[in-house]
Design a protein that fits this description.
The protein is α+β, with helices and mostly antiparallel strands and 467 residues long. The chain contains 16 helices and 24 strands. The protein has 3 domains: 167 residues, FAD/NAD(P)-binding domain (3-Layer(bba) Sandwich), CATH 3.50.50; 118 residues, Orthogonal Bundle (protoporphyrinogen ix oxidase, domain 3); 106 residues, Polyamine Oxidase, Chain A, domain 2, CATH 3.90.660.
């Protein structure tokens, strides 16, 4: 039995790793990993510059989502895992060119402590009063899928959408709160509204019942919110590749079509038809839609209709003396109303240990997203100029950088727009009608690195069960 895995990002690699392990019990099992680019790992890319560890794509994953941690253990990398410096975790929102710390007791975007919320300059008194009255909201079943912006505005007002929900979701999804589906992106908040009415009361009830672990115990962090690898996220990619059969990996290889031929799958690989017994498509959804359109036109449409955003990361290294004006904490988020190019900025040397040697600090700036994709057409020099001007304006940084590194990721972040669950139902049903076909990636049931790993593992399990 021969399996084709189309796409060599972390989802496709996770699929290949599971099949490689299964070969120990089933030597007849073969697989081929087909990747269009010359390197594996997709947007996961780490490099060393001036003794600093620079991440081109994701720099970490959420610790509570265990698939990434378990994979690292499988790869013998458990002792390479490092947690974020949560004792120093402090995040700011840029408001009228002033950095304002997120108030204590704010759980994602839901206030749970009265005094910090009342005293923060982040919100007007009108919004603060509305936040207090939110405790009186009656239970409300969600009759239709609605955007995150609609849900949050109904409870806390437009100011909270602008200054909190939108920048937070822009930082995570590169998306727009007015477009993203509340039911898909924030299912726990939807459940809380249906059960308690008030999101604040629902969040407090979740913590008191223990169903939602509190991030603090006796004033000390329980465990790091984020985890990474000592040598960078690239270690995960390299660890998988080292355990795969080199003869089963084909880089710089283009798959242009997938068809069903009798009991087999026919893939057009570099212009030549090849037959396989099973296929896992671990490409972005828009690419999967193009590959599968001839097989099932509606499936192709549904996959192609999943929106994506693009992103740019610009990592800048400075001598620490040049960052004397940097506030404490991890970084800041920028609301769209501030009319800046930057969506967010992370103080990398503070977030994780060992990212930069003593005497060097690193800032990682994020641009692009759903609203600013045109920035991808700017040159590296233009992007650097924009970011350095904004860092000077916001943080007072005038020092010359030791290095600047720009990474661009076109159409890399799937957007779970309103209606995503209905579209996913159709996609799941269409794929189930096709024997020995599976999908994996960030477009379907989770966008983070652990979600991608999980979908790759589940795709492998689906295929292995079919033999």
């Amino acid at each position: 039995m021969k399996v084709a895995i189309v796409g060599g990002g972390i989802s496709g690699l996770s699929t290949a790793f599971e099949i490689q392990k299964a070969r120990a019990a089933s030597p007849y099992l073969e697989y081929v990993l087909l990747e269009q680019s010359p390197r594996l790992g997709g947007s996961i890319f780490s490099e060393r510059i001036d003794e600093c560890l620079v991440e081109g794509g994701p720099d970490s994953f959420m610790t509570e989502k265990t698939s990434a941690t378990k994979l690292c253990a499988d790869l013998g990398l458990a002792d390479h895992l490092v947690g974020s410096n949560d004792a120093s975790r402090k995040t700011y929102i840029l408001l009228k060119n002033r950095l304002i710390a997120l108030p204590d007791g704010l759980m994602f975007m839901v206030p749970t402590k009265l005094m910090p919320t009342a005293l923060t300059p982040l919100f007007s008194w009108k919004t603060k009063i509305r936040m207090g009255l939110e405790l009186l909201h009656p239970p409300r079943p969600m009759q239709r899928d609605e955007s995150v912006a609609e849900l949050i505005q109904r409870h806390f007002g437009a100011e909270v959408v602008d200054r909190l929900a939108d920048p937070l979701l822009s930082g995570i999804y590169g998306g727009d709160a007015a477009v993203l589906s509340a039911r898909t992106v924030l299912p726990k908040l939807v459940e809380m509204e249906e059960k308690y009415g008030s999101l604040s009361r629902g969040m407090l009830a979740a913590y008191s019942s223990g169903s939602q672990p509190h991030p603090q115990t006796n004033g000390k962090p329980r465990r790091s919110v984020f985890s990474s690898l000592r040598g960078g996220m690239q270690e995960m990619v390299d660890g998988i590749e080292a355990r795969l059969d080199p003869a089963s990996i084909r880089r710089s290889t283009v798959v242009s079509r997938i068809d069903r031929v009798a009991e087999s799958w026919q893939l057009v690989v570099d212009g030549e038809p090849q037959l396989f017994d099973a296929v896992v498509v671990a490409t972005p959804a828009w690419a999967a839609g193009s590959l599968l359109a001839g097989l099932d036109p509606q499936l192709g449409i549904d996959l192609g209709d999943i929106p994506y955003s693009s992103s740019i990361t610009i990592t800048i290294g400075y001598g620490e003396a040049g960052l004397a004006s940097l506030p404490e904490g991890f970084g800041f988020l920028v609301p769209a109303s501030e009319k800046r190019s930057m969506l967010a900025c992370t103080f990398v040397h503070r977030k994780f240990p060992g990212r930069a040697p003593e005497g060097i600090g690193m800032l990682r700036c994020f641009l692009g997203g759903a609203r600013n994709s045109a920035l991808l057409n700017d040159s590296d020099q233009q992007l650097e100029s924009r970011v350095r001007a904004e860092l000077k304006d916001i943080l007072g940084i005038t020092a010359e950088p030791r290095f600047v590194r720009v990474h661009r990721w076109r159409r890399a972040m799937a957007q779970y727009a309103v209606g995503h669950q209905e579209r996913m139902t159709r996609i799941i049903q269409a794929v189930a009608r096709q024997p020995r076909l599976a999908l994996a990636g960030n477009a379907y049931l989770g966008i983070g690195v652990p979600d991608c790993i999980r979908t790759g593992q589940e795709a492998a399990a689906t295929i292995l069960r079919s033999f």
